[in-house]
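As a warm-up, study this chain.
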Amino acid sequence: MEGRKMVVWRPFEELERIKRDFDRILEEFLPVGREAQPQALVPPVEVYETDKEVVIKADLPGVKKEDIEITVKENMVAIRAERKEEKEEKTENVYKTERFYGVIERVIPLPVEVDPEGAKAEYKDGVLEIRIPKVHVEKEKKIKLA
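Now compare it with the structure written out below.
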């Protein structure tokens, strides 16, 4: 066994290294503490079109109507909202909080060109519904020779 180095496996040191790496990864994705910048939540959406319009439905539970902002352009819709934490004095201990408070944002590319001027939105039971008329473009045109 001359000339060979003996390698000692130290399982607790290896576990500590794995824990440090895992903690570092979590900190990148889930900032904690007051100094951390809040991350924007991306709401789930449903986008479909009818013969006359594009319809977008977005889940925004716990958001007040006045905290929703919608921007419509010819080829996209931007939704921005804020879910605010209601502060009240509590004498009870909080054991766990998983509810999200902060900015909710989503930019949705549209499958067809739309008319932003005709857009309408309704917010009911935590669901935002946006209806935007499509710009009708003739798909076929006969051209006469000059």
